[in-house]
Amino acid sequence: MPPTATRRRPPAAAPAYASPASAAPASASPAAAEPPPEVRERILDTASTLFYERGVRAVGVDLVVQQAQVAKASLYRHFPTKDDLIVAFLEREDRDFWATWDAVAARHAQDPAAELDAHMGWIGERLARSHYRGCPQINVAAEFAEPGHPARAVAQAHMQALRARLRQIATRLGAAQPDRLAAQLTLVVNGAFVSSPWLRPAEATAVLRTAVRALVAAA
């Protein structure tokens, strides 16, 4: 699915706990040594940008630590493994995607055709962004062939949710075979995510909407 705008927050100044010279004394309580909550977000922001721009396998934990300007111990307190960090990245993208979807759906609760058209509109706009690099879930799933990898589980759940939501719209549209229409719509949307580099920005939304309208008309 299309990601939210790539986060490009400038790295914050290194916090005190990241500096060996300012490390907490041995007598400090465990609570005092814990990094503040915003450190987790800074790590996740940094990792998300790197994962999306360079690919998950190309980005190591050391690079995330360096660019987030945190101690490696701080990263591992929040994300015990790199897989945990990848899953957190995908889960946040998933939440952001469905938050946008739900907001659009709420504006067209009584008109499924208008809702579907509006979804294709905002998805098309994302495809046209200069920094768009495809759907994070599809990208990460392609990097991990192992069926049991936790990142693939998140990606699969996202795709299943997309098809389920499109099926609900197809049912409301009165399609004779809503499951079939949902499968076709899912294929078009995912195909658009993958094909975005070959679509001119000015045509992305129109191409997507035209394809979807043709499928609905034939359903």
What does this 3D model show about the protein?
There is one protein chain. With 219 residues, the protein is mainly alpha-helical. 65% of the residues lie in helices and 0% in strands. It contains ten helices and no strands. Helix 7 crosses helix 8. The longest helix is centred in the middle third of the chain and has 26 residues. The two termini are 24 Å apart. About 14% of the residues have low confidence.
Count of runs of 4 or more consecutive helical residues: 10
Structural class: mainly alpha
User: How would you state the average pLDDT, rounded?
Assistant: 86
Helix content: 55-70%
How do the helices and strands follow one another from N- to C-terminus? HHHHHHHHHH
Keywords:
single chain; about 220 residues; about 0% strand; elongated
Concise summary:
This protein is 65% helix and 0% strand. The protein has 219 residues and is an all-alpha fold.
Topology diagram in text:
Blueprint: H1 30-33, H2 37-54, H3 61-68, H4 72-78, H5 82-107, H6 112-127, H7 136-143, H8 150-172, H9 178-195, H10 204-218
Helix pairs in contact: 2-3, 2-5, 5-6, 5-8, 6-8, 6-10, 7-8, 8-9, 9-10
